[in-house]
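Example 204.
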Amino acid sequence: MNTGSNEFSSVTNALAIDGWCVVPDLLSSAQTQALAAECRAMHEAQQLTPARVGAARTATPLRGDSTHWFQTGTRSAPQQVFTDRLDALRIALNRELMLGLVECESHYAVYPPGAGYTRHIDRLRDSDARVVSAVFYLNEGWQEADGGALRLYLDGGSHRDIYPHAGNLLLFLSAQFEHEVLPATRDRMSIACWMRQRMSGPVF
Ligand SMILES: O=C(O)CCC(=O)C(=O)O
Ligand SMILES: [Fe+2]
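Predicted structure in complex with fe (ii) ion:
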């Protein structure tokens, strides 16, 4: 990926045409490895929290991951590098597609073997803030036999299985695509992010 002002032009084109794409080179492999090492260390130190679903934030069998939200002021160096790159992408999307994205929210997620996330849409029922979903994968040496695909449901009833290979960033329009995380045979690590617009009020 070059560093000119149009470095994200293929991404913005793909998002405009298909509504989703995979970006293979957001970070260097050293930067990706630093995030993976930190995520694994936090998981091993039991610093991740079982994920919740919905406004009631209830524990749920619908998803089996544990998470840690990146927070302003307490981001580690690898988290800050990632946040800055995602922000550059957000600004490019605003410039090219006029999406009006004002911020990103991001968390580490670890799915232990056998855990998944049932078919869902990322836009919350009472909020239209989430516009673009982004998932950055942290798993070196992932094989398709390990499972763990993100299954993205497309118009017309077909789907695509995207495997969580280290360094790949999956982007899709939050309101448009149902998706699910299929269970894997090994720990599956990622950073899940949402680029948000200003809320326009309740959506029913
Ligand atoms: O990890 C993934 O591939 C997707 C996670 C997801 O769908 C979510 O957190 O909403
Ligand atoms: Fe999702």
